[in-house]
Amino acid sequence: MFEERTAIKVSEAIKRVMQFCKKGEIEYINIDDAEGRYLGKAVVADHNIPSFDRTPLDGFAVISEDTASASPENPVRLEVIETVGAGNLAKREVKAGQAVRVMTGTMMPEECDAIAMFELTNEIEEDGKTWIELKRPFKKGDFVSFEGEETKKGDVLLEAGTKIHAGVIAVLATFGYSEVPVVKKPVIGIYATGTELLEVDEELVPGKIRNSNAYMIKTQVHQAGAEAVYYGQLADDFDQCYDAVKNTLDKVDALITTGGVSVGDFDYLPEIYQKLGANVLFNKIAMRPGSVTTVAEKDGKLLFGLSGNPSACFVGFELYTRPWVKTFLHSDKPFTEWVKGTLTEDFPKPNPFTRFIRSKISFEGGKITASPVGMDKSQVVTSLAHSDALVAVPGGTRGYKAGDEVDILLLFREGTKDPFKDPEKLRVKKSNDDA
Amino acid sequence: MFEERTAIKVSEAIKRVMQFCKKGEIEYINIDDAEGRYLGKAVVADHNIPSFDRTPLDGFAVISEDTASASPENPVRLEVIETVGAGNLAKREVKAGQAVRVMTGTMMPEECDAIAMFELTNEIEEDGKTWIELKRPFKKGDFVSFEGEETKKGDVLLEAGTKIHAGVIAVLATFGYSEVPVVKKPVIGIYATGTELLEVDEELVPGKIRNSNAYMIKTQVHQAGAEAVYYGQLADDFDQCYDAVKNTLDKVDALITTGGVSVGDFDYLPEIYQKLGANVLFNKIAMRPGSVTTVAEKDGKLLFGLSGNPSACFVGFELYTRPWVKTFLHSDKPFTEWVKGTLTEDFPKPNPFTRFIRSKISFEGGKITASPVGMDKSQVVTSLAHSDALVAVPGGTRGYKAGDEVDILLLFREGTKDPFKDPEKLRVKKSNDDA
């Protein structure tokens, strides 16, 4: 019964999954619903910003020639003929010796070519008229915001695949995208398998545990930008599982199952993939946790067979499912960002395979550090709740010390172009390490 | 007309806002709706994890005493009397010389006290029975996961104020939280003021711009964890604005307005606060952008008067509104996390006040670096879309060089306990700097 499987590297497993990526279709949705979605098309400026010459502050629009001789000793006096607020247009023609009081954002009166801000003027009421005195000259263009100085018509402002957050929404609104072209979310079906699983509202009974993977994966699917459809729990029964998987495949863009991928007597997913005629991309990876993560392909759709162990399930999604989702969403940076950083404490466990350690990062003195969470067993169940990174240490090593440089996968960042590369053993440590 | 205002420090402004923080009430919602919400109560383990002794791998449950003499030369043979999968219980009593085939997650048969994994056993069919051969002894407890070894009943697993993400959901499901105690979201009303504002679906006309602040702020409100109610645009008309603000205050927990807080003729918010009898906490801050950010308090509710300039509006929300929201959500880390990092390029602008520069961070060789975005004017409008951090440089400085150490506010992180402190000028630079 015990089946031999060939473990492949993490980077090879990622590569095999990425061969079955596709890009989602585009749909138009209201800007009010666009938050958190991904742009389906690049956003190109269809007009200049500003779209007209305007004042960037409260002051007076003047004709610069009028101010040429102004000095503290010989101030120039101009008649204020009108006050214009942002959104309104000057109604009167401005002649030599005249000025217009204008508020921030107001379009420049046609005849004016400079702005004298409030702080540089004295206002005087005389002869039933309002005057300003200027004690310095202003040059043509002084303090004016010119049409197109921020953005020119035709500029590419945002690339397809950009996640729509607050700053992106501001750009979309500025350019009149009341309807936004976004990528349709991929629909990811989820089954949790295991006779030991109780629903979250069921009382504990001996031998059983509550199903936490389904809720966790649903949230990971959402956070990656996809739609999750949870189809429920399945007992370890071949026929039930086979029918469920078979009948769900045509309703989803990809299917995640949790559990049932190891070599136990009731781990039916391998047999199910076989009966379906699916192409198994891999069924063992040289990594911990999650070595039994299995991915298969049927008619171009991926079946992600994640481990039933919560941490392995979590890591499997982040490494293999997430980049598939991001590519579907037109991102060219689909991979979890990984950086170099420093371990804050010893990690004495030997690492027969590449190990992903649930960790929390911090920034001290300009450097990135990572602290493993759940080092003592009492925190295993909550370690995922406190992690925002995975420290990756190479296989074939005996342990790591505080201060060692390690690879860190940042779970909260949008992504990177480069897929994770399995770390190599540090040469300097080799003498202490396993073969 | 020109009004003198007294600028206060950023840290002082934050302090004044925080005096009017309150904590939101708790409501119970279905775990399916809990993603992105904030825990209203600490989560305490109400049972041990595991809740029973179990096998963490596929193998055979044995009585350790039976294996004491096992060696490669003299293997011990045990009769396999039953196979049990996870979620099921052993049905037969295990006697000396017997073993049970058990799958990962299965509860230990009562009489057994060690696990021999598949890889360490030979299976033999003989006399119509199934036997295993063990070539090594197993000690009491070998490879068993014991009740409570991950988490003990009574352990505090998650603090109130924790944002509910995938790992947190897993803990909630494990402990049977089908209904989750979360903090009711604060309701934040939004008005965009300005006669120059067009709706996002309106055609551009001279002198007008599309309203982008409302959409941006709505998204920032959501991202902070609050509910946004957008009440629409208001022209620069005192009575209209006054009525709108007055009539909205009792429907919301806080009210944001954008625009109308400077010293222009049609900047009515200061007068509105006065007529309302509101207590103005500050109306000028020694910062750029956003120096005119004004916050007032009326009957314990805050009125955030953010600037109409998009970047200033953005920064004002992040610095002053966000920590108020986070505190409402019971977080004890309400402030945007700020860290030391290195500037990647020159920032030659003089900084009369503390300046917040829209920036993008990256991690190179274990260090945090920040690159200002929108340095050239052509990117002003999109700089917010490309920023994930604000670099803060102290007032009274003439500019910064690539390689200088600066404070960086990380916009994408959950928060920190310490409010932002206005940076001091670097002593080494003082000779070159303005007073």
TrEMBL record, chains A, B:
What keywords are annotated for this sequence in UniProt?
Magnesium, Metal-binding, Molybdenum, Molybdenum cofactor biosynthesis, Transferase
What's its job? Catalyzes the insertion of molybdate into adenylated molybdopterin with the concomitant release of AMP.
Protein name as it appears in the record: Molybdopterin molybdenumtransferase
State the superkingdom: Bacteria
Pathway the protein acts in? Cofactor biosynthesis; molybdopterin biosynthesis
Q: Which InterPro entries match?
A: MoaB/Mog-like_dom_sf (IPR036425), MoaB/Mog_dom (IPR001453), MoeA-like (IPR038987), MoeA_C_domain_IV (IPR005111), MoeA_C_domain_IV_sf (IPR036688), MoeA_linker/N (IPR005110), MoeA_linker/N_sf (IPR036135)
| Sequence ranges assigned to domain MoaB/Mog in this UniProt record | 189-327
Question: Could you say which EC number(s) this protein's record lists?
Answer: 2.10.1.1
Native source organism of the sequence: Evansella alkalicola
Q: Look up the record and name the cofactor or cofactors this protein needs.
A: Mg(2+)
The uppermost taxa in this organism's lineage are:
Bacteria, Bacillati, Bacillota, Bacilli, Bacillales
